[in-house]
Automatic annotation (TrEMBL):
Domain Transposase IS200-like: 11-133
InterPro entries: Transposase_17, Transposase_17_sf
Protein name: Transposase IS200-like domain-containing protein
Domain of life: Bacteria
Signal peptide span: none
UniProt-listed SMART domains: Y1_Tnp
Gene Ontology MF terms in the entry: DNA binding; transposase activity
Amino acid sequence: MPAKNSVKIYLENGYYHIYNRGTGKNEIFIDPEDYKVFLHYLEKYLDPSSQHSMAKEVKLLAFCLMPNHFHLFVLQLSRNGITKLMRAVSTCYAMFFNKKYEKSGTIFQGIYKAALIESDPQFLHISRYIHLNPRSFIKDWENYPYSSYKFYVGEHKVSWLETTFVLNFFNDKNNADRIGHSSYRSFVEDYALDSKGELADLTID
């Protein structure tokens, strides 16, 4: 039987939670440079101005890089967008990691997993689940530097991350020009339950 979310039947204009971990649950990000290099490859392939851009095929909505795994929330615009992006980023990063740490072979636990988002509640909860991930190992998780949370609360902005798809749910209905950074912060930081339970098979094992 295939592993959960390992079968890749992708839809155009479909939202997906993409995740993978290190082989044997080993760390895939060991020092700050590692995180920055992985993010560099996301930027390389997702920035609309990059000559390698896949922005017309897939858009990144949220991310979180943890020591031994990563989460990406994406919108796939073309049927092969996710496959092309993950192949490029994973290959480039694995080559960097193996060279730096004098290793060989795969660094990831098999092929990445992809879970289709099928409802508005799932759409909102998956972004919150991703942003709350660092809460499991650091107290001031809201300041974790390797997630997209700071972009969602209006402290940073980059061209290769599309926050408006989620933030549009939190806009001030009386002010169309006001992006819902504050409302989204409350949505995440005031959450006392475990969003993993609400997402069922959309989360990492």
